[in-house]
Amino acid sequence: MTIYGTFDRDPRSLTAEPEGSQFRKAPAISQSSISIYGTIDGGIRHLTNATPAGSTTKIGSNGEYYNNRLGFKGVEDLGGGMNAHFHLEGGFNTGTGASDNKEGRAFNRISSVGIAGPFGSIDFGRQPSVACKAVYAYEPFQYRYVHIIPLAGAVAGNNDGNVSRPFGTADGPRFSNAIQYLGKFGGFTASAEYAMGEVASNINSGSAKALGLGYTDGTFTVGGAYTRQNPNVATTGAADYREQDQVTFGGAYKIGDIRIAGGYINTTTEPAATSQAKNIWLGARYDVTSIISLTTGYYRTTLETSNREIARRNFFILGATYALSSRTSLYADIDQAVLHGVVALRPGEPTRQIGTSIGINHMF
């Protein structure tokens, strides 16, 4: 399936300038276009041992299989291989119609504007982080089931007053107030970003810097990213900005109808409640037919402080999709998580959670 909009910055269809535009008074030397896209996901999920009170079953979600979104992209051809472009993308809850965030952001997922040319693309605003884009290339599910698979919440991002949670909450993979560069040169992709903390009298507080590099020849893919972040880790009282380093790397190999992918994320923060989080994973996708696909993955997350493990999550998932068309699919999954340490429901006893999801996803 295609990730509509999120990583695609090159709309192709061009139209004339709208009525009232100042540029209609001059000879038409450039063309522009605006496209609307999105996806909506409706399903049911049941999870055992979700809380000390027991199991939960729910319908309302931001997308069990693939996150709901409504997006707008625009591009203006500047000539000479150059273009100016913008990208707006917001999320929503299928069950209630509410926004997918508590901050009231209309475009919580992406809000950026930039310029592109033979040199690559430079964008300003809120956008997926360099680490987020690196992990996408070697994640077995490629950011499906992001609310239960830990990686979307573990990658660097979300520096605006919060700290990413290593077990994954899908609130981590973006930076606000960011400047990002992305360049593609043959099979290589290079990226860099700087996210401003905008904290008075301290340019480093709340900021983030990152570099990424990837390569693919269509069959073999390898990549990685390094991020230095200064999130506010204080829970009460005065702000407390700590240095946080994250390294991720991994690869994928596609042969015929099978794709195998695996990777690693290591996040280290200066002395804090949790000083280190490690994620390692391996999985595969098999396209059984042109309309049926199976994907499976194993994900292990550990949290450490002072070189001592305080929590661990072992997670296994098997998912299946059945394409009703090129844009509409039925999906189902079964997954199991075993929680140890401080994240277990009862101290000293592992917590076993069994999850099942079933639903329909439509892209437009």
Oligomer: single chain
* Overall average residue pLDDT: 87
**N-C termini distance:** 12 Å
Number of helices: 2
Short description:
It contains 2 helices and 17 strands. It has 364 residues and is mostly beta strands.
Could you explain how this protein is built, in words?
- It is a single chain.
- The chain has 364 residues and is mainly beta.
- The chain is built from 2 helices and 17 strands.
- Strands 1-3-4-5-6-7-8-9-10-11-12-13-14-15-16-17 form a 16-stranded antiparallel barrel.
- The longest helix has 7 residues.
- The radius of gyration is 21 Å and the shape is globular.
- The two termini are 12 Å apart.
- 37% of the residues are buried.
- The N terminus is likely disordered.
Task: Describe the secondary-structure layout.
Layout: E1 32-51, E2 54-58, E3 69-79, E4 82-90, E5 110-117, E6 120-128, H1 130-136, H2 151-154, E7 174-185, E8 188-195, E9 208-216, E10 220-229, E11 244-255, E12 258-269, E13 276-287, E14 292-305, E15 308-323, E16 328-341, E17 351-363
Antiparallel strand pairs: 1-2, 1-3, 1-17, 3-4, 4-5, 5-6, 6-7, 7-8, 8-9, 9-10, 10-11, 11-12, 12-13, 13-14, 14-15, 15-16, 16-17
